[in-house]
Fold these 4 entries.
Entry 1:
Amino acid sequence: MQVRKKDGENISSLLYRFSKKIQQSGILKEAKKRRFYKRSQNRNKLRLAAKYRAEKVKETERAKKLGLL
């Protein structure tokens, strides 16, 4: 992205125009999205993780009912 200073323009208005152009172009949004790389997992692994979490929730609720927690 390139912004050139106009005649008689102060630095703050130049920075304002620059930041406005960056936001409109979507570069900032894309950079924030790519900031952390997340490796894709296979569906079976995701299902097993969800099943494990559900079992843990049931265990803790059961323990609370029994007064163990």
Entry 2:
Amino acid sequence: MENSSLFYKLMLLRTPGVGPARYAELISQFGNAESAAETLKHDNRLRDAVLQEMNRAQELGVVYIDDASVFYPPMLKQVKNHPPVLSVRGNLETLRRKMVSIVGTRHATFAGMRIASDIANAFAGHGIVVASGMAMGTDTAAHRGALRANGDNQTVAVVAGGVDYIWPLENESLYWEIVSRGAVVSEMPVGFTPVATNFVQRNRWVAGIGEKLILGEADVNSGSMKTARFASDFGREIWAIPSHPSDSRACGPNSLIASGAAKLCSGPSDFFKSNKNLGGDEKKSVSENVLLDALGTNPVSESVLAEIVKKSVSEIKADLVVLELQGLVRKIDGGYVRA
């Protein structure tokens, strides 16, 4: 995109009251961004602000793409009133690939984050980009799960502020990993600090950018549930990970499954026949794999485990120690759970 063309498009989009819908109307009415921008009679302050934004973007290595670019995410382009221009920090090639969106609560349980991470890792290992919003909890687990896969271009973070605005601060290291091995995208100006409404719009684009959406733990009135509703409006396939009904974080996904609005998601095997070694995890013995398969979120005693895997307690003790040292299992309440 030429700088002059980009300048006028940004002039329109940075004009108060002009969003994607109004932008489309102006382009339709006047034929191009330059003609439309000239009719709005902008003052010098806005012109200076746009020029400063473009200069700052260049300094930071931020690239702008419009919806005519070959790098514009193809599924997002299908959404009515999608962002006419995106700013991108990272690898543009990431945006051309197939994507799946994974979202959920910021206050996810360990088990909820583990399954989101495993699913993300499986998709990334099969060459499908994982998109999320870089929030704490489920989003972070999804991004990190994707980054565990070998290679680059595994994940996209859609952010509510400027593409250079790192939030939450706890995810600064994750942000730079995504910039290095994926892409961070935003429709907002470089340097922009988001407000609440920006996160709602961000959720729309997270829902629109993927071919399907996978919902983890989420309260029924949460932003993640709004993302799922956006995905439904866009005709996306929705999967939901069920959880224990006594936990409020299960209300969202469980309600979608019960109503038929989402398919029940039990893990990577719902999408791929084999997920072996996709994340580069240390190889485990056959015995260790059998033990892992026998464990879940409820503690299982050594004696019961031994019966399940048809071995003696003494035979499985060594494998359990290895798995515990690897961080794959934990011992609680006199039994073992999958970590």
Entry 3:
Amino acid sequence: MTPVVVSKRTWVQGRPAAYSVAGEGMPVLLLHGWALAHHTYRGVIEIIASQGCRVYAPAMPGFGGTGGLSDGAFSISGYARWVSDFLDVLEVDEPAVVMGHSFGGGVAVRLAYEHRAKVRSLVLVNAVGGSSWRKGNSLRSIADRPLWDWGLHFPSDVWPLRQATKVVPVMAEDFVPNLLRNPRAMLRVANLARRADLRHELEQLRDQGMPISIIWATRDGVIPRESFEALCVASGVQGTVVEGSHSWLLAEPNRFGEVITNDLRVAKAARDLEHDVPTVQRRGLRRVTSLNGRAKPAAATVARRSGHPPADE
């Protein structure tokens, strides 16, 4: 049965906040990209929830009807602090797998860096923060990339036509209302996103043992390959390259579910070991019965990919 995605409202930091929630099980936090909100990711939320997860997808401040941040708090750190408070309001009392797409990926990194106890692992999808861009033969900071160049590449995100028929309707559900409701927030967040350099934070998280996965699509005209590679170097992971454009997961949520399956399995296995749940049979885990008939958990021997041991629930 497909999990039911429910839209709800609450209050965070004294302002109204909208979000979607679906499924039961290990908490997963999904952070949306620039100019979008939780409605756009309904298909993605369903796919994640169908893998035995409780998915929380907030509309971040300034988008989807959620009140904007104050001028003094307007920064990626401010967004991360808001997300931390959002988890507190919903009483999510254990670390979550945090998945961030585009601008949401940058917020996810800052959340893990500044609120480490809230994050079990990171999955960054076509994320900002690599701060690298190639102009001709020179490698430059992505902050030097003019806005008109971003604009030239943005239309390629919805083509070819087969993809456009899938992506445009779901993006329009949030993009158009956001543009009409708060165009200033869209511009300000765009500037935050293009100036984001989160390599230092990723290096620190790598050294702390944070499990990190980084995914990028071959036709992404918004996040250059050089930026993706810079994120991978800082994180110490190989990264995963898929066919598609910047918003490929919106066009093909089922394929996204396949790509992240191992990340969820690894997180579930780690969570079960932490909670000491010996009654569940898992791939890669073996149960041994002692002479007195009492079962004892045995050590897990599992393969590793990108530094994470895969296992089934």
Entry 4:
Amino acid sequence: MTEKTADFQPFKRSWQFWLNRRLPPQKERTLGQRSIFIFPSRFGLAYLFVCLFLYILGTNYQNNLILLMSFTLIGFFITSILFSYANLSGLTIKSSQTNPVYVHDTAQIPLYLSNCLDRNTLTFSFGKHTETTLNLASERDKVLVPFKAEKRGMVNPGRVTLKSYFPLGLFRCWTHLDLDIEVLVYPQPVESYVPLLHLDDVSDTPRANAEEMDDFVGIRDHIPGESLSRISWKHVARNQQKLVSKEFADSEFDPSWISLHQIQGNDLESKLSRLAFAVNYYSQQNALFGLELNKTTIAPGVGNEHRLSCLKALALW
């Protein structure tokens, strides 16, 4: 942190404290006097300088025409304040659930607007992230505001900035709203081979062999994720056909697992990224698998809901 940045830290803390008291987190907010701020823009300051220059020039030369022009321009300046405020006043902004994304991906955060008929040139952004502009709002509108996720977990993108330079660009009318938004960010998948393990490999708990406990009843198609010990290699070699498994009475085939312990290395984020890739890969293969993260365990399953549950566990780990 540079000295210049450090000098601004007390000011930033005071500013955030004041904002949190004046505009606390709220899912829905209607803009009014407490939440709208108006300051001259750079163009507005230059405009004021020209008005002042014309006034001094007209006074010095006692030229009524120049004085009239300066007074007229100042009248436009003052009137613009009212139009700027009216463009945001009464506008209701509501946050909604955001779809999960991966780290380094851009989330499109939906904001719903109401009481927004004929609102002009509204610009939305989260901090220094990309801005999105709504040129002319209808009675009810939806805006997708981009936010690039830089870390995993349940991330709050911070305050959304809404600003407008309507009507003449003389004023910057704006607000900073904390709409209590949360974005679930998954670890960025990193391609890596993560083999499926079985329960005894994950927990070091001995398990009985199903073939020793149950009666053999026949052959069926092999299901991805089953133990290789169940494959009937004789039938595969004899008929040169696809994999088939032995089926036993009253037995449930042994599901497979992926575990944090099987990933080598000390970088937790890298290990979680490799597991995220494995979750997506085995879900595409329709394999039955579970996820083991020390004290957090996701029971074996298949399908997209199971995949999302595993990714959420990785994100919140």
